[in-house]
Amino acid sequence: MLFLILLVIGYFVFLIIFYYQKGLVFFDVGYSVFVAGLLSFVGIYIFISMLVLIFNLPTSTVYKKKIEEILSFQQLTQSLQVGESIEAIYQALLENAINITQAEAGYVLVSENSFTLNHQISQEQQKNINHYLSEKHKEILTLPYQVLSEENIEGFESLMLLNLYEKKGENIAKLVLLKKYEEGFNSEHQELLDTFAKQVSISIENYKLLEQVIEKEKLQQELDIAEKVQKSLLPRNLFVGHNIEICAISESAKSVGGDYYDIFNISPTRSYIIIGDVSGKGTSAAFNMAQMKGIFQSLAHLDMPPAYFLFYANQAVSKCFEKASFITITLLLIDAEKESLSIARAGHCPTLYHKAQTKETFYIQDKGLGLGIIRNKNFKKHIVTQEINYQKGDTILLYTDGISEAKNLKDDEYGYDRLKYFLNEHIELPPAQIQEKLITDVHLFCEGLSPHDDYTSLLIRF
């Protein structure tokens, strides 16, 4: 159309000049600025437009191709954002890579998940190509990408290999693209696919991180349930008798722990009080603690002396616990009618006793081994029971090593002496206030450090 307009204008100018020379035109239009300017402008504009059009014809396909590449990259990005699985991410990479490079076949081989995605290629062809690469071109298997156009490979003349890597440098997948003619891939394909590969690697890493977050969230929910279950195992009713006041507090260093205390009223005047600490921390210790509650509850109904109680408990632990696990406990049998107290210790922290009449505070430190350390009848030899007649105002403090071994910034322990001094200083307070001040004092001593172990405190006042 432009060429036709240029011809018409040229012919029109030729006619004006021709008829002017013949004397048929009496006015020389060349002297008209408007007509001359109009014809010149139209002629020059049409000529330049033709040149622009001619020079742009070869590059129009390139622009179209670039637009397709951009659209494909956008499509890949959207696919990666909404990918439901790692397999979907690799599938998006394969489809977009084939569209961009106009490859006739291709496949993705994923290392860690051991699955393969393919397009227009059989498993047998894929197997032979992998064998060809591993046998003849081992050096290229670690490069980011490589193009081969050397020989016929299963009917294909061109092959492009693209390796995908994690941040740590570990190869996670291989993308292989194939064409049936030589020199089918170029450097532009390499650069574009390398960009795709980086985007896919980031998406896969984000997907894995998301899976870890979801898994941690599930684990946290399970731990929250375990924490509620564990707290439900501890007694809510601390009533033993009208003349005995008991208060207790227990906290875990983690969501769940292995500290344990319990009260079993076996008659209107007789009660077992138990405090224990299962070896280890976390869920394993909490699971063993739950087992011990069932064992202690069964033995408490038999109403036996503390020595026999610990002996049979040790037999049960020997059968239920792993060899590396054990539990330390202190067992009290209170007889309110006789105002007597039987104490047996199985490797647990010494019991702190305060006599109201003499204002004396001392530790009861009988020998004893934790349940599950000696797993035979010789355990009897390590059980010592001490009988005490208590009086009004006497106070007993049972605790776990989370209190006595609490550490501050200087790595100093709270210790037995400090605990004894604390009880002497606050003995006039009600038991509940003593408990609160004890925990506060331990936290102040730790100077803001989180407790490294579970801690439990149980205070009894007659």
The number of helices is: 10
Low-confidence region ranges: none
Radius of gyration: 44 Å
One letter per element, helices H and strands E, the order comes to HHHEEHEEEHEEEHHEEEEEEHHHE
Helix content: 40-55%
Order of strands across the biggest sheet?
2-1-5-4-3
Derived from helix and strand composition plus strand pairing, the structural class reads: alpha+beta
Average pLDDT score: 83
What is the β-strand count? 15
In percent, how much strand structure appears in the residues? 15-25%
What does the largest sheet look like? 5 strands, antiparallel
Cα distance spanning the termini: 114 Å
Q: What best-fitting shape do the alpha-carbon axes yield?
A: elongated
Could you provide a short overview of the structure?
The protein is an alpha+beta fold.
Features:
462 residues, alpha+beta, 5-stranded antiparallel β-sheet, 10 helices
Topology readout:
Blueprint: H1 2-21, H2 33-81, H3 86-101, E1 105-110, E2 115-119, H4 123-136, E3 145-148, E4 158-165, E5 171-179, H5 187-233, E6 245-251, E7 259-265, E8 270-278, H6 282-300, H7 306-320, E9 327-335, E10 340-346, E11 351-355, E12 360-364, E13 385-389, E14 395-399, H8 401-404, H9 415-426, H10 431-446, E15 455-461
Antiparallel strand pairs: 1-2, 1-5, 3-4, 4-5, 6-15, 7-8, 8-9, 9-10, 10-13, 11-12, 11-14, 14-15
Helix pairs in contact: 1-2, 2-3, 2-5, 3-5, 5-6, 6-7
